[in-house]
Amino acid sequence: DAGITQSPRYKITETGRQVTLMCHQTWSHSYMFWYRQDLGHGLRLIYYSAAADITDKGEVPDGYVVSRSKTENFPLTLESATRSQTSVYFCASSVTRADTEAFFGQGTRLTVV
Amino acid sequence: SQQGEEDPQALSIQEGENATMNCSYKTSINNLQWYRQNSGRGLVHLILIRSNEREKHSGRLRVTLDTSKKSSSLLITASRAADTASYFCATDSGTGNQFYFGTGTSLTVIP
Which of B45, B97, B104 is opposite residue A42, by nearest beta carbon? Predict the structure, then answer.
């Protein structure tokens, strides 16, 4: 199916564990983004990528790692999960820079216990 | 932070009425976008307005942009129950590489 998909949709993990959230898009969009959404904070940018092998930090990158070896995939890894990383995570892609619309995945609800 | 702020935080109206929500931001932008988020879903793009535009329409949506006041408004006319959602404005960063989202307006349209 065409579009942008995230997996898993729901995840519960324990403090200190490593967890990876997956994001896959079928459009070959250059730009991909990871956001977290928390009540009262809206969406905050974690990392973004302008192309394969090019990534950069957003507003709240601490505790997260990204990679982009292929254009269509942009996984987000929490190296050692903390309770403050309990959130809903959204992946998005856009054709070019932030002057075109972004397409969002359905989100991953992550709970760190 | 460039993050915009929507106002009001929550809005409740009757079906058929118009809904207006506002967005303010802090630094110069190249464009501003509005997105809708239904409960438990991802965001969906509604409309993009560039910094050299003052007004834009799309169906029942009307967006205005005042760069001198660093603000934008989204008007939804003749609202429907299906318009119930959260609405976010998004601005680009100075480099144009990133989107910054506001905190959103939660709209409830009562049938």
Answer: B104
Asked if A48 is an interface residue toward chain B (Cβ–Cβ < 8 A), one would say yes
pLDDT at A40 over 80: no
pLDDT at B82: 96
Cβ contacts of B99 on chain A, cutoff 8 Å: 33, 45, 92, 94, 98, 102
> Of A54, A53, A63, which is closest to residue A87 (Cα–Cα)?
A63
For residue B8, say if its preceding peptide bond is cis, omega within 30 degrees of 0: yes
B22 touches chain A (CB under 8 A): no
Per-residue pLDDT reduced to its tens digit, B23-64: 999 888 889 999 999 998 899 999 999 999 999 999 999 999
